[in-house]
Amino acid sequence: MASRMAGRPRTKPAEERRYDLMLAAERLFLHKGVDLTTVEEITQGAAVSKGAFYLHFSSKADVIEALRARFVQSLLNGIAEEVGQQDAGDWNGKLTAWAKACAKGYLDAARLHNLVFAAAPPPSRKGLTSNILIDDLAELLAEGSRGGAWSLADPAFTAIFLFNALHGVVNQDGAGDDGAGRAKLLRDIEDNVLRLVR
Amino acid sequence: MASRMAGRPRTKPAEERRYDLMLAAERLFLHKGVDLTTVEEITQGAAVSKGAFYLHFSSKADVIEALRARFVQSLLNGIAEEVGQQDAGDWNGKLTAWAKACAKGYLDAARLHNLVFAAAPPPSRKGLTSNILIDDLAELLAEGSRGGAWSLADPAFTAIFLFNALHGVVNQDGAGDDGAGRAKLLRDIEDNVLRLVR
Amino acid sequence: MASRMAGRPRTKPAEERRYDLMLAAERLFLHKGVDLTTVEEITQGAAVSKGAFYLHFSSKADVIEALRARFVQSLLNGIAEEVGQQDAGDWNGKLTAWAKACAKGYLDAARLHNLVFAAAPPPSRKGLTSNILIDDLAELLAEGSRGGAWSLADPAFTAIFLFNALHGVVNQDGAGDDGAGRAKLLRDIEDNVLRLVR
Amino acid sequence: MASRMAGRPRTKPAEERRYDLMLAAERLFLHKGVDLTTVEEITQGAAVSKGAFYLHFSSKADVIEALRARFVQSLLNGIAEEVGQQDAGDWNGKLTAWAKACAKGYLDAARLHNLVFAAAPPPSRKGLTSNILIDDLAELLAEGSRGGAWSLADPAFTAIFLFNALHGVVNQDGAGDDGAGRAKLLRDIEDNVLRLVR
DNA sequence: TATGAATGAGCATTCATTCAT
DNA sequence: CATGAATGAATGCTCATTCAT
Questions:
Q1: Residue D79: which of C117, C136, C185 has the nearest Cβ?
Q2: Could you give all domains of chain A from N- to C-terminal order, each with its CATH number?
Q3: Which residues of chain B have pLDDT under 50?
Q4: In terms of CB atoms within 10 Å, which end of chain B has fewer, N or C?
Q5: Chains that touch B (3 or more CB pairs under 8 A)
Q6: Cα–Cα distance list, D99 to A39, B139, C65, C132, D102 (Å)
């Protein structure tokens, strides 16, 4: 009996299933919005049974949270890499690298970002004012200020101000859809960011 | 007899009922979120029957839309008034007046604003990138540029950038809850806005 | 004051209002079915207020009843007239006059009659005139005709004719409730069916 | 262990659930009419949850359709069997077999048939079997019989039979829409009516 | 007579979540 | 790990009818 099934991985590793589910959820959320997407549709999209969903997530809200966390983490990684490539003392370089890497990450995931940040059930205004991205940006601004590059009265405030500005311009309909538009967008961002700190 | 009834409409003027309903809806949306608020709760809050709701709004989404429109319009009125009090050629004055009036309006309506802008069913990214507020701001920036006050490559872009920045800082938890915080917030906004245009 | 209104018939005579209402109801019932027609639509169609409806009819069902009664009465009048024109002893003439006058009346009011007799939503008149049972019967009649058993000008017509006749007698209240009644019913059916084909 | 469960499906076969639901629906439709029967009552009658209903039918109308299809199919089967037992050349035998089998099927399912064909609220079967038109026709037939024109065993029966036949042919879609069709219709009616009385 | 705002019971349908297998 | 039938609370919306004026 056991041998009959031996050759066929009865199931998929949990990691993989979880990934499938998140992928299907992301697609559907993007396509029809969070509220209009049912758990059943997600499981169908991931080719698993309805019950399987609850083996990997405790609720629908849980997937959203997972999606959000993954998005932010990956964005942060991308930013860290770009910023790390700047010269230690080049604060303007670091700041524009931050802003541009953030913008790129958004453009690449465009609408998803909006969804996981806004469509969350208990929106509370925290979404856009306190997250690890803003913390990271605030830290950069504070360091640059201490380094004498800029004179910012309140780096934390500027971080929120700037982050939300970025968030907004990047979410314009059609923003960066083509190469030229994208280039202009990044240029405009750089320009405005630099104006802001000096 | 006739005089006794003259001033008192047969039941309640439609306007008033509509207002009651919107007020109740606003309170509930603020208190428990749009999704968790039922139409029945709204009618109970307005002390009318369930059916009465549909005498004034075609659906739940319709109230949200009405709330949004009212909010934006009143905000715009407040902004226009403040901006109008500046000297004709004082572009920086106008811009900071715009930003501060907008911030004040938000602070006064605080979380409501978030709700009506974000909690809408088919949010689409348009919410924060194209509305009459941003159009108004873009116009101001364009005029100031033509007037030689600033040199903005793309006033429309800056308008979105700035509007979203404002939107974000104003929605920090506890922002401007007390007088001191509020004053600081407005000062920080002024400072950053001015940096942005030069 | 009174003189101001004197010359203007404040309202319409009840008869006329009632007629307007019935007319509007008939149109709507015909157009969208009884169930899908609301009392409000009827009053709008008759250009009166919602409340006025209940001044002339006790309920929605009451209009249907009134419509039905009027239809039947007018049909009966038409029949009486036609039949009355036949010679006293010409029974076949009277009978065919009856049948034809009845048919004409129906044709003239066609779908209305259907409605008031069987207040069905939109099942269209197809229910009893085209279904696989009738097709089956038509086929049998056609075959028998080809086989020389009967000389039917239009087997399909006869199928509908016969099917509906059967349908009717079988649906008499209490038809075939007891063994004896049932036996008689079947005998009567057989008798009439055979008359019909020859 | 396995054998213990072998014959008993995990829950209940879809077929069986569907059957339970249809049975409950039929009972209720018969008892209180289609419109007055709620989906909840149906599920209670079938001892399943409300949601289970929508696992097997897409809507309330869907059950009616299923009931109708089942009724017609079973009736047709019964007819085919009876007709098949007649001698090949015995057309009258076949025809009366058809009519009687059809009548029996109706009698056995009586009011259900009425319901599924004309999902009317509570019109009761009286509509087409006892109204002043039929009374009038019956009177005519009785008189003609007394007058020696025809020999009708039961004029009242023939009246119902004939009235329903007329009703049916006249309600064919498009019946008598143009002058030619109308003339043929009236001719066919006359022909069949006369056959019926002799 | 006439109005039309107000009522509120009523109902179909959805869907996240559970659980027996 | 996996299944998917079953659940049932929850909710938006309709509409016949009433009634204060």
A1: C136
A2: 7-57 (1.10.10.60), 60-197 (1.10.357.10)
A3: 1-9, 119-126, 129-130
A4: N
A5: A
A6: 54, 83, 33, 14, 5
